[in-house]
Amino acid sequence: MANSNALRWRVVLGGILSNFCAGMLYSWSIYVNPLMEAHGWERGSVSLAMSIATLVIPISMIPAAKILAKKGPTKTALIGTIFLVLGLAIAGLTASLPLLYLGFGVFGGIGVGFIYGTPIATCVKWFPDKKGLISGLAVGGFGLGSIVFAPICTSVIASLGPNTTFLIQGAITLVGMIIAAPLMKAAPDGFKPEGWNPPVATAASGASHDYTSAEMLKTKQYWFLLIMYLFANMSGLMVIGHASPIAQAVAGLTAAQAGAIVSVLSIANTAGRFMSGALCDKLGAKRVVTIIYIVNAVLLVALQFLTNFATIALGIGGLAVCFGAMMGAYPSLVVDYFGVKYSGPNYARIFLAYGIGGIIGPQLAVRVVAATGGYTLAFVIIGASCIIGAVMSIISKKPVYKG
């Protein structure tokens, strides 16, 4: 294909920009206090909007993958754009909690679900020679969006309030996606970069068969990966949801200092996403995932002993790197196990662990703090789950297709 190399990098650019726009999800925390002050809502009621979005995103990725296969990446991403922008508009125009849940939680979750999975499934088919690197770049855009959106939205909220900021964020997202979505084109079936030949499929090199989602669901490896990913998301989303209170409770930081820890978390999360893909190409996705679980467990156990700003920043930052790295590595792991052809719908079904982990991890922390007055037991429980995840990763083997 003429100019295929330039075209496939343009697709990656479109994918990074798309997930950059969808990265509004991780700027949610800056809206919580302003919404409480503006409308007199309780923290738990406001936070439910994010919980709904976290649950809706992986569910919506399943129909999004089907539409992607039929309509292509541009139309799928634009459908997601409509939902996301409409959700932000509803959130911006309402003073009603149910409408906030419908707008940010349901419509916003659907929009992010359609947008987030599209670059991952699209870009990796253009880069069978660099699938780890490209998966990392695709999901890295999501973390990058949180870094850029958060300070901008914080400043706008201070001047214009949270509702108007939702509307402005929706407008920025619309413009960005109108630019990004047309850049993403589907790769031809069986595309191979010029001068590259796929390695002979072996237990080490890749899947011997492109599994459909129905075939994948019948394998024990699917359930292994789903449970493993659940443990990773429990850990990462607990830290993201509680970074500030953890820093204040464990290290005695002020609210302002804890806010700086949240900024460290966002940068570290994004760095982990970008780095892990290239590591997967060099070491193999399974090996990278195993290492991440071990490091994650060690940091969780150590977290309770980190009692000043520098050490707690390193601890929470390290956990954020692990979470971002897992998000970058898992699409590559799914391709290794189940093939590239149906990677979109297959990853969507494994990504269900994100929604479940987003409920279990943060809620476990809330209940542990209420019962014990501290986070230590939550660190131990989730750290132990990461050890189990490491063991599962070590003993898991790629499925052997039997026809």
Please bin the fraction of helical residues: over 70%
* Sequence stretches where pLDDT stays below 50 over 5 or more residues: none
Q: Please, what is the average pLDDT?
A: 89
| Rg over CA atoms | 20 Å
For the sheet with most strands, the description reads:
none
Given the helix and strand composition, which structural class is it?
mainly alpha
Give the DSSP E fraction (strand runs of 2 or more residues). Answer: under 5%
Shape: globular
How many E-type strands? 0
Would you mind describing this structure in some detail?
The chain is an all-alpha fold and 403 residues long. It is built from 15 helices and no strands. Helix 3 packs antiparallel against helix 14 and helix 6 packs across helix 12.
Task: Set out the fold topology.
Elements (H helix, E strand, L loop, with lengths): L3 H19 L6 H11 L3 H29 L1 H21 L3 H30 L4 H30 L1 H19 L32 H5 L2 H32 L3 H29 L1 H19 L5 H30 L4 H8 L1 H21 L3 H20 L8
Helix pairs in contact: 1-5, 1-6, 1-7, 3-4, 3-5, 3-13, 3-14, 4-5, 4-7, 5-6, 5-13, 6-7, 6-10, 6-12, 9-10, 9-12, 9-14, 9-15, 10-11, 10-12, 11-12, 11-15, 12-13, 14-15
